[in-house]
Each structure stands twice: as C-alpha cells, then as structure tokens.
Amino acid sequence: MSKRYRVVALPGEGIGPEIMNVALLVLDCAARLHHFSVQINWALIGPPALAACGNTLPQETVQLCRKSDGIVFGAVSQGGLLELRKQFDLFANLRLVRPSPFLFHCSPLKTEQLQSVDILFVRELVSGIYFGPSGRGMDSNGEYGYHTMQYYDWEIRRIAKVALRQAHYRQGLLTVAHKENALPHIPWSQLVAEEALMFPNVVVEYMLVDNLAMQLVMRPQHFDVILAGNLFGDILSDIGGALVGSVGLLGSASLNEDGFGLYEPIHGTAADLAGKGIANPLGMINSIVMMLQQWEEHAAANLILQAQDQLLSQGYRTADLWYQQAGSAEKLVTTQECVEYLIDAMENIFQSVWSRN
Ligand code: IPM
Ligand code: MG
C-alpha cells in the first residue's frame, strides 16, 4: 500500500497563490515518481478569508488543518497567520540558510565568505512580543501603544531543546541570540545553559542580538545553529536572504511537539510582484522539501533539491536572481517556466537513476 498524505493549501494573497499553484505541481511530480499520494484541500486565510466569510481564520480552515498531515502556506499581509501558528502550537520555526555556489554572485558578500555557509535558524514562534499583552491607551502624556515581550521559562526551555537537538546532529555549535543587557528578566542564557547539560557534545555560545546581526554579515561561516526568540528570529533570519542571494529562495517549517507542521516561504506577500508571473517559487518549493523531510520522504525531497541544483547550475533565474552581466549565460524565466524546467529536471534525474539500477 503506498502512503497517502492529506495537505491543506492556504495560498493567501500577494504572490502566495501563484507560487502555491506551481509548487504543488512539483509536489505532485515527486509523489508520482516516488509512489505516494497527496490529496490537496484548498482553504482560505487572511484578507481573502475576511472578504469571503468575515474572519481571517475561519473555523472550516482550522478543521481541515486538524485532519491533515501538513499545511502549506503562501503568504498574507496580515491576519490569520499568527492565530494559526498559535492554534496548532507551532512553536519551533526552522529556517535553513545554505547559499548555492551557483548564486554566490547574487549576494552582496564575497564568495570566500559564502563557501560552505550552512546555518539553521531555530526561531520561537508562538510567544514573545508578537503574542504578549498589547493595546493602545491614553494617559496624561498622550496616546500610546504597547506590545509586551513575555516568555514563560518553559517556553524558552522547549525551544532550546529543539535547537540543542539540531546542533547535536549538525556541527555541534549553538549560538543563542539574547538582549540581556536591556531585557534582563528574560534569561535565555541561563535557561539554555541548564538544558544544555543534557547535550554535552554541543558547544553553546551566547551573543547579544545586535552583535549577532553584525557577525552574521561579517563571518557567516562561523555559525551552525542559531536560536532566537520570535522577534529577533524574524529579523535575523531575513539576513539569511542576503546570504543566499534572495529572500525568495528561503523556506521554513513550523512544527509542534508532535511533529505536525506548517510550511511556508519566509518572504511574505511581495505585493509589488503579485500577478506578474515573475515571483520566485523556490522558497515555497523549499518549504515543501522540508515537509517531505518531516514525513521522512527523503528520496522525494532529495530529488527536488538535486533538480533545483541542476536548474541553477544551468543558469535559469527568476527576476529576483537575475543580474544582466556581459557574457553571462543566465536565462531569465517566469514563475511557470522555472517550475517547468524543475519538473523536467526531476523526471530526467529520476530516469537516469532508474536506468542505472
Ligand atoms: C515571517 C513573517 C511573519 C512573522 C509576518 C508575516 C507576521 O515576517 O514569517 O517571518 O513575522 O512571523
Ligand atoms: Mg519575517
């Protein structure tokens, strides 16, 4: 019996629907070649859901997600996403930054600084300042707004364990982002150090987040796993976009304790690109790769990654990666073409492996 997976697709808005449509063709191809099946249910979230049913996170969407093996998410400008993360307690957000040698020239950093960079951001996703008490008020000094950064110690401990486990299976270095010189009541360093006693093979270092931001640009090769709270992780991981050459390439997985997850590109709605057919679908596709890895469909995940390497090595570039250089053999492609080439490459690689065996 081949495996059957149920996936909820939440395209959202902006470039979300365009990249979702084509990325699901890639998933479909991977499933066909590797003999598993994926049933897709489409649902609404964010402003399109608000327009259709008066709520950015409709109950029907939540119910469908509850019955699924994974959620794939495009982008929303506001509303629904934070609630969805909270609803399913998707506290562990993983963002992998591994610049492709074929795209080193797309990054403002020098090639020598980018070689073998391989960073995993582990971002806490359902607490901190995005979820603390907030509001607007007025007192004798005038009108004001507030958002509160609040963390239970157990919330820090559980994300620390995820990051430590990742570091244990990777290169064994964990860098903890904190700001204890200004925010002393949220003791990331002490709590992570306590959890780290269970991981004697992991070296843990603690870095003030402002310094960490600079170090990420100055010497990205230093890092292995970076652990950060919600706000700092959001900001730091976008630096990853500069390292790989475009934020359009980066995918993410947001997981709960049971390993259930939501998979989304980190770039957001990119409203200026929407409807033009030029958005980079690789961030969405790389999120789907993370879903396949989470399902332990490693052969299917590797096939997509290999095909992506081939596509980039042959010079196919969406607009965000295209720099017209004299004498360059790079070919500008649309979202649709990018995926057509990717699927061709998947089929060819699969055929050539099959004919060798
Ligand atoms: C991200 C995004 C979201 C976040 C926004 C859209 C709320 O920036 O996933 O990085 O801040 O978490
Ligand atoms: Mg962000």
TrEMBL record:
Any single biological process term in GO: L-leucine biosynthetic process
Reactions mediated catalytically: (2R,3S)-3-isopropylmalate + NAD(+) = 4-methyl-2-oxopentanoate + CO2 + NADH
Gene Ontology CC: one annotated term: cytosol
Superkingdom of origin organism: Bacteria
Keyword Oxidoreductase (UniProt): yes
Record key words, sorted: Amino-acid biosynthesis, Branched-chain amino acid biosynthesis, Leucine biosynthesis, Magnesium, Metal-binding, NAD, Oxidoreductase
Cofactor: Mg(2+); Mn(2+)
One Pfam family here: Iso_dh
EC annotation from Swiss-Prot or TrEMBL: 1.1.1.85
Protein name as catalogued: 3-isopropylmalate dehydrogenase
Lineage: Bacteria, Bacillati, Cyanobacteriota, Cyanophyceae, Leptolyngbyales
